[in-house]
Design a protein that fits this description.
- The protein is of the alpha/beta class.
- The chain has four domains: 2-114 and 242-311, FAD/NAD(P)-binding domain, CATH 3.50.50; 129-239, 3-Layer(bba) Sandwich (FAD/NAD(P)-binding domain), CATH 3.50.50; 325-444, FAD/NAD(P)-binding domain; 449-550, 3-Layer(aba) Sandwich (Oxidized Rhodanese, domain 1).
- 29% of the residues lie in helices and 25% in strands.
- The protein contains 16 helices and 30 strands.
- The chain has a five-stranded parallel sheet with strand order 3-2-1-7-18.
- β4 and β5 (89-94) form a beta hairpin.
- The chain is globular and about 90 Å long.
- The mean pLDDT is 95.
Length: 562
């Protein structure tokens, strides 16, 4: 069998390698229009800070190594410009010479990836404007910054690539501004979790311009759609990507409703001899029950293996995707899986969520830090549909546990009882994922009621009654303006000070003591008490960036992030 693979990065190279493991005699040829195959595109931004000191380290394998290790032919600098389905051939153009030739196939695998979205802005094609797609791009950007002594850099886009580029440029000593069209960075996260990211970026010198776009690019500045002018000696465009479908569309292959190449559960296109994998295709979402596009390396690797297996009659159980990812933002590790609360509600799903803050390991350990975890679940089934975690500790570990639960159709009851490994250096006996599930079951079954940190400002402006159950010294070190302080240790003797005829919103530092206070009040005849999910730490984190950005009056006497 002769298999041709278009695109030699994650999806294409993985498909070719799997074919070789299944069939020693198959003839496999990869085509890549760029100079490199099998490079770590997810690691590209880390070359800017020197974490990856040499760009050659980004190249996982070159054509010579492919030939020696796998007996695969990798042709670089050769662009596939047409698929001739009737003849079962492709037309290939030599990038340097422009010469063309045809190559026949038995099976064809398309893995062209995706290309950066370029905004419609005046001057966007200037020489100091860059995208980050491959090794050549990152070398060009790094060389320009170093040779021209760039100081101010604007990053257009606040997604994965934009954030990682901004962080690594900041680590390299550059003054960076992120310009984001949405009102938050990192779309997979809900607004309450994104505010933690905003503060982390701000604390590390990265400026944020949200709810605006770039309108004009000039030599040393950019003008935004809100007419604000930002100093920028270089501009990095990282708005997002759009699938490379031209080759498939021109060949008459079906394009899906999302704009990606349409494939079946085995990654076969509308032509039985042609497969497609990676960022260019649309995939089935396990939770939303509809086609989506998901540009992530993990799913691309799985697709590559499944496509190769199908060529040889090996069955693949396609579960669909859920969208698990992680990113480091300076000191914080951030991870997410499934869908966020906003997407769930937009899809018409009936969901609720809990936001817990708990130690990532036993508090006695010197490296113990708070971990913020948001868990989204379906009502009334309790089925888990998503989660987000942020903190200095192992956020990815917790999200991986929940991702496994989602993949297996797990509920908050399952997560509540899941048995995890424990050591004071690695976690707590009741891990934060167990705690989140316990809180979620309490909410689902109506054992107590809650409000979210996003509700607090509106309630505060309506002069709602907030009860702070922290100790007096904690209260003095920052609290909600107008709140009443009755420490939990004194609550049972001072319940007469708590009104029974109006709603009472209870908070502490992280919602554990306030939960105990809510239950004590509830069991003593108070019927209008609600816990503030996330409590004072969550309120401070939610409010801080918005207060700074909008220059608005804080609702707290003093922020406290400890």
């Amino acid at each position: 069998m002769k298999v041709l693979v278009v695109g030699g990065v994650a999806g294409g190279a993985s498909t070719a390698a799997r074919i070789r493991r299944l069939d020693e005699k198959a003839e496999v040829i990869m085509f890549e229009r760029g100079p490199h195959v099998s490079f770590s595109n997810c690691s590209l931004p880390f070359h800017l800070s020197g974490i990856v000191p040499n760009s050659e380290k980004l190249i996982v394998m070159d054509p010579v190594q492919f030939k020696k290790k796998y007996n695969l032919e990798a042709r670089v600098g050769q662009e596939v410009i047409a698929i001739n389905k009737e003849r079962k051939t492709i037309t290939v153009k030599q990038v340097l010479t422009g010469e063309t030739y045809e190559e026949n196939y038995d099976k064809l695998v398309l893995s062209p990836g995706a290309k950066p979205i370029i905004p419609d802005a005046q001057g966007i094609d200037a020489e100091h404007v860059f995208t980050v797609r491959n090794v050549v791009d990152i070398e060009r950007l790094k060389n320009y910054i170093e040779l021209t002594e760039v100081k101010n850099i604007a990053v257009i886009g606040g997604g994965f690539i934009g954030i990682e580029v901004a962080e690594n440029l900041a680590a390299a000593g550059k003054k960076v501004t992120i310009v984001q069209s949405a009102k938050q960075v990192m779309k997979p996260y809900d607004e309450d979790m994104a505010q933690i990211m905003h503060k982390q970026l701000l604390d590390n010198g990265v400026a944020l311009e949200l709810s605006t776009t770039v309108k004009k690019v000039e030599a040393s500045k950019i003008t935004l759609s809100n007419d604000k002018v930002i100093a920028a000696d270089a501009v990095v465009v990282a708005i997002g990507v759009t699938p490379e479908i031209n080759l498939a569309a021109e060949a008459g292959l079906a394009i899906g409703v999302t704009g990606g190449i349409k494939v079946d559960g085995n990654y076969v296109t509308s032509d039985d001899s042609i497969y497609a994998v990676g960022d260019a295709i649309e995939v089935y979402h396990q939770i939303l029950h509809k086609p989506v596009r998901l540009a992530l390396a993990g799913p691309a690797q799985k697709q590559a293996r499944a496509a190769a297996d199908h060529m040889y009659g090996i069955t693949n159980h396609n579960r669909g995707v859920i969208g698990s990812s992680s990113i480091r933002i300076f000191d914080f590790n951030c991870a997410t899986t499934g869908i966020n609360e906003k997407i769930a509600k937009e899809a018409g799903m009936q969901v609720d969520s809990v936001y817990v803050i708990a130690p990532d390991k036993v508090g006695l350990m010197p490296s113990s830090n708070p971990l913020h975890l948001k868990l989204i679940f379906e009502v009334p089934t309790g089925k888990i549909v998503g989660a987000q975690a942020i903190g200095k500790g192992n956020a990815d570990k917790r999200i991986d546990v929940i991702a496994t639960m989602i993949s297996m159709g797990g509920t908050i009851e399952d997560l509540k009882d899941v048995e995890l490994s424990y050591s004071p250096m690695f976690g707590t006996a009741k891990d934060v994922v167990n705690i989140a599930a316990l809180v979620a079951t309490n909410i689902l079954y109506g054992r107590f009621k809650q409000i979210h940190v996003s509700d607090v400002r509106k309630l505060h402006e309506e002069n709602a009654f907030f009860l702070d159950v922290r100790e007096v010294k904690e209260f003095e070190n920052g609290h909600l303006k107008g709140a009443t302080n009755i420490p939990l240790s004194e609550l049972r003797t001072r319940m007469s000070e708590v009104p029974q005829d109006i709603p009472v919103y209870v908070y502490c530092r992280s919602a554990q003591r306030s939960y105990n206070a809510v239950m004590a009040l509830k069991n003593s005849g108070f019927n209008q008490v609600k816990n503030v999910s996330g409590s004072f730490l969550g309120i401070c984190l939610y409010e801080y960036f918005q207060d700074v950005d909008q220059q608005r009056e804080p609702i707290v006497t003093k922020y406290n992030f400890k």
